[in-house]
């Protein structure tokens, strides 16, 4: 008997020692952030566009109104809010698991035989049970629920950041299309005048039908392009309206040329992605959730201790009816140690470990993806600014070329094709200028999203 007692004590001590690791909270694994940004020497400043705030970055009042409306009404963001509420409910349930469960179960009966007095019995009973969290089963469930809640909050932030970036991108695309439409319509007026001039030269014997037909063909092609631009404007407005959870309507907006952004942009330090970028935070909270799920799977191998008791006021004592009634009490303590569960606990632990390893890989990959997006955004912004300098010079050169070829056509025998070609190249350069300005703004938007702007 004494040997069995000491054996039990020894086994219990071993369980306590091995079970300590189950209570360890999650700690971030070592992650490699060096080298995430190319040309790191240009981004040593800890200041980041992520801390600037979208209102300071996007100063256009019309755009700010659209973003406010989107944050209030967008369907995806509202769904993300409901996920947070659901996770909060799960966490509340996990926290309440520390408390005992109490059940009130009153009952009564009446029985009798013919000619005999009816017998009435009653029982006002209450019972309670409490599982003591010796090996972290409840603790890990609570921590897992907390990690799930933080993950859902990070997901909501990711949806919000993506929504802001998408609304801004659609808005500035509208401004670019507006600019291209203005350029095309102004050019169309000039081309019609050129067509009339060539017709006049033909009547004067200084041109021919081929020149008139070529000018007309160019003008018709531009008119078709104007129709396509208007179609794109309408489709972009429809898409932006859907983002705002609204019916399709005209969007109030400013002009592309009036948009102002900082002359320099900073992505901050790579390590800041762990705190700023919501999808990276979500991936880490998923890892923490998997860590606690693994701990919970381990705790299934350890014993569980449950205390239960009941009390009640009854007049049915051992089958004998007594009046008035009396109090009854009972208390029970039970210890359950799993020995064989058809391999379920082992399978659950292996599955939890595999999911934890998967979550770690996804967390590491989320950092690499974030670094890639930051690099691409900076490259896009810088390249657009360089291209704009060249295109601006090209436009000034082409404007001078158009002016001189028109004069030559009027006063010399210069071929009409030189005029048409010069005008075509000028139009293409002006449209490219609007495209490059939009590309520069897209670089700003992409960087805002890539560093986890708010």
Can you describe this structure in just a few lines?
The chain is α+β, with helices and mostly antiparallel strands. The protein has helices at residues 2-19, 54-57, 61-73, 75-96, 137-203, 209-243, 273-276, 278-299, 344-411, 416-450, and strands at residues 101-111, 119-132, 304-317, 320-336. It comes from Bacteroides cellulosilyticus CL02T12C19.
Overview of the structural elements:
With 454 residues, the protein is α+β, with helices and mostly antiparallel strands. The chain folds into two domains: 343 residues, Outer membrane efflux proteins (OEP), CATH 1.20.1600; 67 residues, Outer membrane efflux proteins (OEP), CATH 2.20.200. It is built from ten helices and four strands. A four-stranded antiparallel sheet has the order 1-2-3-4, with no helix packed on it. α5 runs antiparallel to α6 and α9 packs antiparallel against α10. The longest helix has 68 residues. The chain is elongated, with a radius of gyration of 38 Å. It starts with a helix and ends with a helix. InterPro entries: MdtP/NodT-like, OMP_efflux.
């Amino acid at each position: 008997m004494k040997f069995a007692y000491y054996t039990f004590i020894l086994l219990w001590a071993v369980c306590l020692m091995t079970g300590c690791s189950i209570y360890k909270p999650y700690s971030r694994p070592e992650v490699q952030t060096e080298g995430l940004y190319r040309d790191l020497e240009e981004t040593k400043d800890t200041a980041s566009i992520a801390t600037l705030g979208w209102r300071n970055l996007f100063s256009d009042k019309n755009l700010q109104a659209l973003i406010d409306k989107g944050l209030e009404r967008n369907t995806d963001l509202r769904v993300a809010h409901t996920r947070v509420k659901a996770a909060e409910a799960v966490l509340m349930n996990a926290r309440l698991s520390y408390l005992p469960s109490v059940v009130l179960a009153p009952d009564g009966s009446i029985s009798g035989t013919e000619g005999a007095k009816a017998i009435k019995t009653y029982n006002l009973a209450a019972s309670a049970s409490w599982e003591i969290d010796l090996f972290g089963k409840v603790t890990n469930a609570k921590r897992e629920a907390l990690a799930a809640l933080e993950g859902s909050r990070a997901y909501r932030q990711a949806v919000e950041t993506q929504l802001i970036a998408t609304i801004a991108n659609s808005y500035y695309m509208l401004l670019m299309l507006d600019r291209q439409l203005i350029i095309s319509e102004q050019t169309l007026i000039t081309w019609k005048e050129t067509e009339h001039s060539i017709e006049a030269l033909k009547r004067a014997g200084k041109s021919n039908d081929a020149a008139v037909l070529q000018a007309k063909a160019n003008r018709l092609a531009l008119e078709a392009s104007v129709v396509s631009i208007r179609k794109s404007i309408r489709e972009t407005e429809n898409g932006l309206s859907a983002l705002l959870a609204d019916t399709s309507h005209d969007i109030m907006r400013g002009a592309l040329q009036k948009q102002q952004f900082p002359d320099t942009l900073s992505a901050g330090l790579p390590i800041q992605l762990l705190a700023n970028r919501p999808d990276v935070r979500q991936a880490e909270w998923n890892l923490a959730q998997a860590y606690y799920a693994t701990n919970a799977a381990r705790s299934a191998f350890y014993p569980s201790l449950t205390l239960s008791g009941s009390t009640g006021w009854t007049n049915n004592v051992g089958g004998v009816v007594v009046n008035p009634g009396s109090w009854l009490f009972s208390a029970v303590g039970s210890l359950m140690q799993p020995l064989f569960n058809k391999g379920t606990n082992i399978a659950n632990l292996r599955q939890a470990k595999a999911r934890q390893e998967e979550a770690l890989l996804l967390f590491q990959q989320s950092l690499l993806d974030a670094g890639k997006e930051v690099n691409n955004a900076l490259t896009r912004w810088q390249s657009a600014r360089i291209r704009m300098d060249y295109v601006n010079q090209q436009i000034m050169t082409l404007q001078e070329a158009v002016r001189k070829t028109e004069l030559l056509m009027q006063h010399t025998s210069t071929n009409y094709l030189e005029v048409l070609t010069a005008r075509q190249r000028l139009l293409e350069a002006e449209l490219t200028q609007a495209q490059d300005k939009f590309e520069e703004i897209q670089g700003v938007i992409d960087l805002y999203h890539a560093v986890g702007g708010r």
